[in-house]
Amino acid sequence: LERTFSIIKPDATKRNLTGAINAKFEAAGLRIVAQKRIHLTKAQAGAFYAVHAERPFYDELCEFMASAPIVAQVLEGEGAIAKNREVMGATNPADADAGTIRAEFAQSVGENSVHGSDAPETAAEEIAYFFSGLELVG
Ligand code: GTP
Ligand code: MG
């Protein structure tokens, strides 16, 4: 079974939506095999999103990700990386398909409620950034 890394972002934790979001992952057949609630520093958010360092929204993104707690988690299932992104919906909620997390809950292209790894390499890196092997319980 494949594993992917997921974040429930500050806009969603602030609005008490972690359960509603995870219900959608579970309904899609994804299992939460690791989970923790943490409050990132801006530097930690910056390191996580280093790939976007040259984008114009980078500073805003790091401020946002450090603005309130997040829930970092690992989802497991068949084709988990693609399935997670399907359940999340498009980055901009205005473009997200009906029924997706971002269509239902996201507030804007920046405050878009969830993160999901985009490939096997980034999934492995992102899981290792937040979790030790001991914390992954399939
Ligand atoms: P992630 O799962 O969070 O990586 O989202 P994504 O893969 O759908 O989008 P991408 O990797 O392109 O961008 C990463 C994150 O940067 C997005 O999820 C948004 O939170 C933020 N972001 C992307 N584009 C914009 C933008 O135009 N403005 C702002 N403020 N934030 C953006
Ligand atoms: Mg991305």
Topology:
Layout: E1 2-8, H1 10-14, H2 18-27, E2 31-38, H3 42-48, H4 58-65, E3 70-77, H5 80-88, H6 101-105, E4 114-116, H7 120-130
Antiparallel strand pairs: 1-3, 1-4, 2-3
Helix pairs in contact: 3-4
The structure holds guanosine-5'-triphosphate and magnesium ion.
Description:
Its cofactor is Mg(2+). Homotetramer. The structure is a single chain. The protein is α+β, with helices and mostly antiparallel strands and 138 residues long. It is 40% helix and 19% strand. The chain contains 7 helices and 4 strands, in the order βααβααβααβα. The protein has a 4-stranded antiparallel beta sheet with strand order 2-3-1-4. The chain is globular. The chain starts with a strand and ends in an 8-residue tail after the last helix. The mean pLDDT is 98. Guanosine-5'-triphosphate binds next to helix 4 and strand 4. The site of guanosine-5'-triphosphate has 11 residues, from helix 4 and strand 4.
Would you summarize the structure shown here?
By secondary structure, the protein is an alpha+beta fold.
